[in-house]
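Why run this: before we spend reagent on co-expression, it is cheaper to look at a predicted model of the complex and decide which construct boundaries make sense. The entries below are exactly what would go into the expression plan.
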Amino acid sequence: MLWKLIKFAVLSRISKRGLILLTLLNAFILLIGFGAYFHGVTSLQYESYATLYVAFIYVLLGLQARIGILKSDFDYYFTLPIDRKTLGTALIIANLIFMSVLSLSFVTITLSPYGFAVAPFLGISLASLTLMTYGMSLKERVAIFGIIGLWLSSAFLGFPFSPLAADTGHPIEGLLSAAAFAIITLYFGVRRAGALDVVTMREVSRSETVREASDTVSFTGTSPFLAVLRLKLHYVGITSRYGFMGATASVRARAIPLRTAMPIVAAIGVIYFIVLSILRASGTESVTTAMIMGTVYMFTFVMTTAGSSSVTMERFWPTVVSLGPKYLKYVILSSVIQAMVLISPVGIAQLTFLLLYETSYFIDSALVLFGYIPLATAISIMIFAYFIPVQLKDDLNVTYQEFRPIGFVAGMLTGLLFMPAALFTLIPAWVMVVAIALIALILAALTSEDVLKILIEKMTERGYI
Amino acid sequence: MLCIEAKDLHKRYGKVVALDGLSFGVECGEKVALIGPNGAGKSTTLKVLVGLISPDQGYAKIAGYDPDSIMARKVIGYLPEDASPYPMLTVRENLEYIAALRGVEDVKERVEEMLDLLELREVERRRVMALSRGQRQKVAIALALIHRPKVLLLDEPLNYLDIPTQEKVISYLNSLKDVTTLVATHIMSIAVRLTSRVLIISHGKLIWTGTVQELRHMGKEDEPIESVVARMMRGSG
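The model came back. Tokens follow.
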């Protein structure tokens, strides 16, 4: 029965071709990992920082990659006359399969024999934690993953009982810690998975106490573009497409007022500046690593807020039907502005730091922040809209839910599109200028009326209205 | 003069033929029902008429204009099946937002009017995601009407509505004398209440058109109109 359930849970979320692609991707990652290792490459990153990278990515994925719960799960899966623990176990295994690519990516970062041994444990714990934290508030999840991130990073400082300590000279303690961590989280994850329907039902908005909105926005007396911009600068749709990194999406409606989000991102900016200032004492290498992480944070943030979410909540039937394709242009532009406002505290922190202490990177960083990232964000919105045009109808009830290889490839391509931004310390300024000019030209072509019409038609054909 | 015109429309979704040479016309001010079984091509026809998708062959005109022209967009009011307004916005925000996009001059007055007409006053400050399906349908109808459209394209407009609201909407739509209305539905009683002429389509083709009275006369004595339509649809298959 468990096998049948796993098969059902997997195939209800991913097409057979998608599953084949996932398997091939895993094999490819392993091949690169083993190949590089046996050719004497010890780490793709600065060796001593590999553990920090793993900790950082673990936390980032933990916050972003959540299990996809479908509306049909409520209608069919959770109503099956089967023990809830069995249902939960099947879901957690399915989740693990979807997150296998992510788990294996840890291998390519550490590229050590211990890295190969620890990666499955990290994968299991990550998959389990996404279930354990399902239904928790963002604050709670940030707190939990923050503590775990610190524990993982402690290996960098020589603490032996960290899952990543195997890579820093404590193989036995490290492996035991990783195994224990995986077992404990797996136990609680399975328990939680069996009650996902109850947790989700408690969460979905319709079952919440009906209350009047206190913070509303008025659109009277505005032009169409200003109305769209006002909307985007009032509400931020945050990761309404959960779990897209985990190969299947569970779409939930969540929008918070920008004025609530700004103090949080401002605090992140201040912390970032302090961290950079502290790391300055340890040398350029530490600062560069931190700045790469900061930039990865920024583009991951814009990808998840603007790139993958901005059209999820859109409605064409009252908007495109009134304004035509230019409505989509307004949405793209406004989403980019919104994303830039949200990352501005971290961006300003980075630029201020560079201006004060590392002026050689200032221009590169400014080009990335004000040129590359906004343009790449606009293109990513279009890529997501064309290849994965998910539209949320109600909570969990979306169009075009199924994971398909083309969508996954498009997601990977979007990630690659942002890569030059992360590598700004390695790319000369003139190359960045050329890259910006190039993607500006691509964007101009993509936002022509004819291309936008194709995009609208494609989305409509896939059930987007 | 025709306010809605479809000429030899063809549309395929991969191997599936949605429209197969569909042609019809609706006179200005006329109220017509587009009837057909599930998958007959009703929703696709409406999407072509509002310019969300373009036909592979043939053309459509709204008040003499291409559906995706600014002139056509100004006069169209569209309600798709299972329409969902913006879930994160309140009822009032939805109405104001679409009114602003539509360039409605008296936004405030028009919003108030719609809130009263569809009895949404009580929930105007609630987010749409917290509304029942019926209340959402009321908001969707208000969004389709907010700019006083001259051509209304409605796909199953009475879905989810309670009986008093159904009656109110029927009465309001029937009071819009100058508005050309095309109602896609598979419920015959709705067609009878809202329109005077019927277009029956099946497999993406027009198989019959005529008045509701003509349709009644085609049946045997006391035969329900639904039974007549069902016979025609079976015959077309």
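Residues 243-247 of chain A have pLDDT under 50 and may be disordered. Residues 326-356 of chain A form the longest helix (31 residues). Bring this page to Monday's planning discussion.
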